[in-house]
Predict the structure.
Amino acid sequence: MIGRLTGRLEYRAADHVLIDVRGVGYIVYVSDRVAMALPPVGEAVSLYTDLLVREDLLQLFGFMTLAEKEWHRLLMGVQGIGAKASMAILGVLGPDAVGRAIAIGDWSAIAAAKGVGPKTAQRVVNELKDKAPAVMAMGAAVAAPVSEEVVEVGAPVAVATPRASGGAEAEALSALGNLGYAPSEAARAVAEAASAEPEAGTEALIRQALRLLAPKG
């Protein structure tokens, strides 16, 4: 499976781009948000990719980050969400806002994407809310340097076992900040979570902090 492509952007279309990797052209479908973030035609580009395989179709979908790619994979696992709907959700919200909407149960934000109705949006929130902290932790982690090679990944993106350290607290703070929490309240929640579980990693800290920040009553 092709997990990432690094090459030259050859052309743009309405919903896809062509990336030349050492003489081989790959058509990669992207969201509006990713398309806007790409460099001009002729320049170097690198995208994480996910391959959709059907009996009569092979399609590559491109993402700027591993967290965005993982959200795509999770969204695709929800009944009623196909590739088109997933890209619409990510195009409207972006990975950080998707995580925020799902973590706080804001299904109306998901429903703002074209082709996603209220019932499907509620299903997305209900099915993925427990997985949000893991993807948020992935997004908060420092990204690895981009390779100059085409990288093939043979398995789904996996969330690494969180590291128990001060780095986990910093990553949890970053994730909560992306969710829109004020630095002071996020810091208090993470500090309380870390105090209760000194060896907790990023994902566990995010889960506990979200519980502490949830409205009472």
